[in-house]
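Case study.
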Amino acid sequence: MTAVVRTRGLTREYKELTAVDDVTIELEENRIHGLLGRNGAGKTTLMSLLTGQEFATRGEIQVFGQDPVENAAVLSQVSFIRESQRYPEDFQVRHVLGTAPRFLPHWDQAFADRLVADFRLPLKRRIKKLSRGQLSAVGVVIGLAGRAPLTFFDEPYLGLDAVARQLFYDRLLEDYSENPRTIVLSTHLIDEVAQLLEHVIVIDEGRIVVDEEADALRGSATTVVGRRADVDAFVGAREVLGREGIGGLASVTVAGLSPDERRAATAAGLELAPVSLQQLVVRLTGTTDTEFEKSA
Ligand SMILES: Nc1ncnc2c1ncn2[C@@H]1O[C@H](COP(=O)(O)OP(=O)(O)OP(=O)(O)O)[C@@H](O)[C@H]1O
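After joint prediction, the assembly is written out as follows.
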C-alpha cells in the first residue's frame, strides 16, 4: 500500500480544548475515504492540519512524504474544498473558475465546463449574488475539475438540493474511476455517501474511533430483534453496540456474527437486520439517530 498521508500522534490543542487528539492514521493512495463524526468532533481541524492550514501542537504529518506546512510542492497536489470557503465577493463566477487552474495544475477545463452546465452555474453572476447552493456548487466544480491527487471535501453540499447532491456523487464517482486520486469526504449525510466510500474514518472528540475498510465495516454489526428474553439469551456476553426496547421486545445491535450464529438466531425465532453505516457511526459515537440527524 502507498500512503499519501501519514500522521503519528497528531494533536491540536486550543487552550484547554483538544480538537485533534493523538491521531495516527494513513490514507491510502487512490481511494475514497469518508471522514465522519458529530459536530465539533475535529474533522475540519484534522483536514486543516493535513493541508498545512493549521499548525500541530504535537505529532507528525507527512503528505506525499513531506511536511505540508508552507510546502508549495506538496500543496500544489492538494485541494481543500470547505463549506466556509470565501471568494472575492465582486468576482464573477467565471473569474473564480478562471483563477483556479493557477493553483491546480491538473485542472481539466472541459470537465469544468460540463460541471458548470450540470449545476446550472451563472458564469457572469457575482459571487455575492449567488444562492447558498450555487456557492457550494462553485466549490464542487473546483474540487472535481481540479483533479488534485489529494482532494478534501469538507461538507461540500451545504444548500445543494437533492438533485445537485446526487449529481455531485455521480460526477465524483465517474471521474474518479477514470482519473483515480485520493479523496477525503467529510459529511453528516452518511447514508447518501455510504456506497461511495471505500475506507471509513470516524472521529469523536478528537480521537479516531474507527479506521476501517467500508466493506469490513458494513458486515461488522447486526441488529437482533425479538422477545426480550430470547434476545438477551442469544446476545449473552457478546459486545453490544446499542440497545433499544419497547415492552417485551428488544432490539440489540451486536458486533459481527458468524454464519452459524446467524442460523442459531433465526432458529431461535429472532430477526436479523443489517446495520447501515450511519447507524453504526451513531452507535459508536454514543448518540441516538434523532440527535445525529438533528446535528446534520
Ligand atoms: N480556532 C479555534 N479556536 C478554538 N477552538 C476551536 C478552533 N477551531 C475549532 N475549535 C474547536 O475544536 C473542536 C473541533 O472543531 P472542528 O471544526 O474541527 O469540528 P468538526 O468535526 O469539523 O465539526 P462540524 O461537523 O460541526 O463542522 C470544536 O470543539 C471547535 O469548537
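Observations recorded in class. The chain has two domains: 3-216, 217-295. The domain at 217-295 is CATH 3.30.70 (Alpha-Beta Plaits). We will return to this complex in the next lecture.
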